[in-house]
Amino acid sequence: MECGGCEGNKNRVICSLALLKMQLSALNEKVDALHVGTCIMKFCKRKDDLIEAIKDKAGVEVVEGTHAYAPPTIFG
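-> structure tokens emitted (76 positions)
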């Protein structure tokens, strides 16, 4: 298993995107851009496969990353 129990499964990512679209449609909302989160960008061994799958299916701008996850030192 990967960090946090995620196996980096691209099918799970695509299903999650479809679920997000369904939920947003009920609210008459649309996605303008999709940011790939820190867990994928910094820790996922399958990052390249996931990002490729997301870009292939999203249909909107895909931004690789969101914000700095943690400062260089936590208590310093």
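The two ends are 32 Å apart (CA to CA).
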